[in-house]
Amino acid sequence: MSAVVKNTYISVLVCLLCALCAFGKDDACNSANSNASYIKENIKLAMEVESLKMAKYFGYRALNGIVKTASNFKDCGCPDATTHINSARKVLESALKAENLEDSKKLLKGAHNHMESTIAALYSFERGFLQDYDAILKQQTQVDSTYVGFEDTASEKMKNTVDAGLKRFGASLDHVVAVVDCPKALQYVSEVLEKSKTFLKSSKLTPAQAHYHRGVAELANNAFTALQQCAN
Fold it and tell me: What tens digit of pLDDT does each residue of 71-87 get?
């Protein structure tokens, strides 16, 4: 391998490593999404009970959930989701101060709506982030495939790095399947699957790109299979 190709390859590897560092957000976003669902569910329970005491019981569980997940939202970095969950907190605090069940439920409904918007914002943010990563990978691995394989040490490191990214991607898809409404999740997974298939048709993919997109296609296909209950 020539010095020029080696230098180019090292630059590509560094760029890919930097891109994958951003996947650290995935854990925070997954936690934020999971906690948001827990909070929304407790607000819903508070709306369904027939006593102010129980409404406050579930309301306080939801409020405690918001407080505990604040760091997840900060690390995730989705401003829209943070805005909505902060709004939910304010409305929820007012609901907990209500002196009768009717007023409490009106406010709880508002908090519930804010939590639905929170989850929707996280979902949109996650989609955009994954698309950005895909664009980064495509851009940063434009090295002649004659020189970029997985047979040497540097290439093996790239493979391991891409595999780590695929593992996080798989965890993200699992979360979409578990949390997002089935029709929306199916639409998203279908888009990912078709996109990966389109990439794999290209004859210009480097081994790193091909490995990545094959992995994405496999993960998306597994998620698609898991979502077939809402396909009809």
Answer: 999 888 888 899 999 99
Q: Are 222 and 188 in contact (CB under 8 A)?
A: no
Beta carbons of 102 and 52 less than 8 angstroms apart: no
Helices (H) then strands (E): counts for the chain: 9, 0
Q: How far apart are the first and last CA of the chain?
A: 53
3-state secondary structure of 176: helix
Residue with tokens 């939801």: 62
Q: In this structure, what token pair is assigned to residue 11? A: 């630059």
Q: pLDDT at residue 143 above 60?
A: no
- CA 211, chain centre distance (Å): 21
Q: How many residues does the chain have?
A: 232
Q: With b meaning 16 or more CB within 10 Å and e meaning fewer, what string describes 63-78?
A: bebbeebeebbeebeb
pLDDT in tens, 101-115: 999 999 999 999 999
Helix (H) or strand (E) holding 64: helix 52-68
Write down the pLDDT at residue 15.
39
Average pLDDT score over residue span 130-156:
46
The pTM is what? 0.53
Q: Which amino acid is present at 117?
A: S
Between CA 216 and CA 192 the distance in angstroms is 8
DSSP SS3 for 98 = coil
Rg (CA), the chain: 22
Which residues have a Cβ under 8 Å from the Cβ of 156 and sit 6 or more positions away? 150
DSSP 104-133: HHHHHHHHHHHHHHHHHHHHHHHHHHHHHH
Residues 182-192 have a mean pLDDT of 81
User: Which tokens in the block code for residue 228?
Assistant: 């077939």
